[in-house]
């Protein structure tokens, strides 16, 4: 089988025809006219082919430009996205910090820095769940400053505030590191002693009662302070509200019995 014709073969043929037409010996040849037509046809084809090549080159050029600009656009978008991610990360971090600060503020008493009632309720729920799971009880003590109204009346509200802060420090210092304490309201504080039977809790609460009674000065002001305590041990079979009620009743009993003492229920 003959090999396929190439463009080079065609050029050779064109050169042969041109040589024939240029040959003076062939001037009167009867083939001259068809050869001239063939040459014209070849030249027409060649021009068409060159036009096609130019168009194709142009098309490739445009496609290449478009491809480059697409790559650039893509890179730009990626950089923009990376920037957005960085901004969003920073934004989320500050939101997280803000929400932690808000949570902290919502859980703490601003005067004493201790946990507030909401904080204490969370700890009570946790300890209550632990008791239900593991069967270990906990003790609750409620402390109320004795005749605190007199402190305010005699020394003013500001000194009253300082007294509450000093008492908060005495309570914190007297507790173990795994105990919880907070301001239950006004001049009342609540202590939560995990996994502590009543007799052990009594020793700890007595220590705090004594510490409060030794506060004799806040700032420049001399003061005489005592506090009364109601203590109750929580058992799995009762809700923690019932334990708090019992501690409250014991506190009233301590007040009624003359204050500056611990009563247990
Ligand atoms: N300075 C100050 N006083 C407070 C604060 N919260 C409550 N109090 C005061 O605490 C006093 C509590 O008085 P009472 O409930 O009558 O009790 P008490 O004088 O402590 O007497 P007993 O509890 O019976 O020993 C009130 O005068 C309140 O105004 C506070 O944040 N700062």
UniProtKB/TrEMBL annotation:
Recorded superkingdom: Bacteria
Catalysed reactions listed for this entry:
2 GTP = 3',3'-c-di-GMP + 2 diphosphate
EC numbers on record:
2.7.7.65
**Which residues does the UniProt record annotate as the domain GGDEF?**
136-265
UniProt cross-references to SMART domains, sorted A to Z: GGDEF (SM00267)
The cross-references to SUPFAM superfamilies, in alphabetical order and at most eight, read: Nucleotide cyclase (SSF55073)
Task: Identify the CDD domains for this entry.
Answer: GGDEF (cd01949)
**Classification via NCBIfam families:** diguan_SiaD (NF038266), GGDEF (TIGR00254)
Name this polypeptide is given: diguanylate cyclase
The source organism is: Rubrivivax gelatinosus (Rhodocyclus gelatinosus)
């Amino acid at each position: 089988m003959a090999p396929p014709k190439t463009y080079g073969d065609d050029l050779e043929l064109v050169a042969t025809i041109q040589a024939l037409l240029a040959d003076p010996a062939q001037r009167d040849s009867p083939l001259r006219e068809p050869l001239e037509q063939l040459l014209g046809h070849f030249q027409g084809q060649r021009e068409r082919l060159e036009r096609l090549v130019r168009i194709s080159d142009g098309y490739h050029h445009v496609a290449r430009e478009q491809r480059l600009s697409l790559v650039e656009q893509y890179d730009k978008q990626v950089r923009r996205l990376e920037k957005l991610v960085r901004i969003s990360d920073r934004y989320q971090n500050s939101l997280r910090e803000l929400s932690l600060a808000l949570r902290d503020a919502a859980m703490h008493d601003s005067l004493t820095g201790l946990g507030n009632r909401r904080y204490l309720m969370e700890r009570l729920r946790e300890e209550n769940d632990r008791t239900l799971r593991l069967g270990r009880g906990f003790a609750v003590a409620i402390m109320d400053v004795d005749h605190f109204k007199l402190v305010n009346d005699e020394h003013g509200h500001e000194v009253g505030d300082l007294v509450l802060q000093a008492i908060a420090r005495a309570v914190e210092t007297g507790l173990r590191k795994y105990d919880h304490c907070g301001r239950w309201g006004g001049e009342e504080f609540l202590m939560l002693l995990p996994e502590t039977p009543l007799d052990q809790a009594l020793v700890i609460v007595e220590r705090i009662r004594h510490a409060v009674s030794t506060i004799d000065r806040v700032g420049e002001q001399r003061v005489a302070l005592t506090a009364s305590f109601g203590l109750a041990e929580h058992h799995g079979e009762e809700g923690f509200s019932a334990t708090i009620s019992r501690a409250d009743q014991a506190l009233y009993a301590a007040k009624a019995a003359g204050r500056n003492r611990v009563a247990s229920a």
